[in-house]
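Thread: quick sanity check before group meeting

JM: Hey all, I'm pulling together slides for Thursday and realized we never actually wrote out the predicted structure for the chain we discussed last week. Dropping the sequence here so it's in one place. If anyone has concerns about the input, flag it before I start.
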Amino acid sequence: MKIAREEIFGPVMSILKWSDEEDVINRANALPYGLAAGVVTPNIDRAIKFAKRLHAGNVYINCYGWVEGSTPFGGYKDSGFGKDLGDEGLESYLLTKTVIIKAGKI
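JM (edit): ok, ran it. Output follows.
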């Protein structure tokens, strides 16, 4: 379905049948996008295992769309460049330099 292959921006939730955990992880990770993913389950341990394997910049467990100012936000793959918010969001504005000085006689 088109809704399962494209990045949809809006209040939309795709609910698709799957046969086993490998199937759903492989289908999700095969997409060219990776802004966000959602896992809905009462089993938090299982959800965390899913989250670790999903190629998405944000993974929501039993919620969706919540963003806090100190939490990095941004996608993987074709879903954006870098991160917004949090320490990671500041990195694109910084130019880091290391200066090393040998103390004593030369």
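AS: nice. The two ends are 69 Å apart (CA to CA). Strands lie at 33-34, 36-39, 58-61, 76-77.
JM: adding both to the slides.
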